[in-house]
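Students often ask why we bother encoding 3D structure as a string. The short answer is that it lets us treat folding as translation between two languages. Here is a chain of 412 residues written in the first language.
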Amino acid sequence: MIAAAQLSVPEGRTLVLIFLASALGALLSRLHTRIVLPTVVVEIVLGIVFGPQVLGIAKVYPFVTLLANFGLAFLFFFAGLEVIEKRVRPRALKLGTMGWGLSLAIGLVVGLLLQQLGLDATWWLLGVALCTTALGTLVPILSDSGLFATPLGSAILGTGVAGEFWPIIFISVFLTSVYGKAQEVLLLLVFGVVVVGAARLALRARPPRVMRVLQETIHTTGQTAVRVSIFLLAWFVFLAARSGFEFILGAFAAGLVVGLVLDSPEGRVVRLKLEGIGFGFLIPVYFVVTGMNFDLDSLLSARGLALAALFLALLLVVRGSSASLWLRELGLRQSLALAFCGATALPLIVAIVGIGEERGDISDAVGASLIGAGMISVLAYPLLATRIAGVAGSPETAPPLDTVSAGEVAEY
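And here it is in the second language, the structure alphabet:
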């Protein structure tokens, strides 16, 4: 028999408070009928309140860190799923990628300048952090405002997918210190071949007996498809870590593979079940723990607030610059709305800062200001974008509920 694990009273209290913050985050974010807050922001704030910086009634224990890392893996897993699910038009993806390249060039110059001015952060980490986009936060806004079928909606999707995909690839190379950069790029290509091979195998090799088991257990305790998906997530995470890359690359790759396999009406049910595990359990733990580790004192200092304001402006300048490529198609007003949408960033900033702090590439104080700027961006920029675009969400303009997945109504 397996001996039952014993939690101390403080450990048990911390676990309960984390799940309380998770539940309250979902509730408080939609408590007001007119003001819908991003759930991730509420979770981080509750983590700060329960953590050492404010009430001090919850602490980050090793098992809590383990759960949070699982949550981070699921966050990038769903980023991979979104790339497949959104079916972004080729032209939108092309312009989105070109725009991200422009943002990266500007971001790296800004990062180098800030590092030369004495900011305690590596220049390239600052550069890539300023080039991210919170696609999961933008999707519900597109849905509620009826923008999905418009040119602006297509541009936002292209910008958002590029703002999630390419930063993951970039940091996977630059945050790896096991090999030289040339070897890391080569190894990344090999890893990509493995991912493509796994995807082709998953799409073509579908033995009738296996498919029958997957279909028969989708509504039973067997849940074979869900278990296989989680196995693939674990396997790719292990493969990436074993190769010397950050485990988030493996999680993202797993999302791409599973997304291809689930890209069918039958796969929608499995997707919803995976979202229940990720968004209902593990991902909130990651953001609550992020709040518990948050350096609130540094953010609330005069320097911290000034840095947060600077980073907020730089998000718009650096990431919003990609909207210039859409000027001819969208016009000035819609392009400005696109700039604010592209500058909406938080989840990837949190992940990049967390990894950077572990490796000593960014100080806690600078990281707190960067995350603070990301929190403000998801609160303010999408609202400004919809106002500039001249749309307001209404039941008449929103698509039918059954055409929007659970991932599209999660504020991550």
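Translate back mentally: The chain has one domain: 37-409. Keep this in mind for the problem set.
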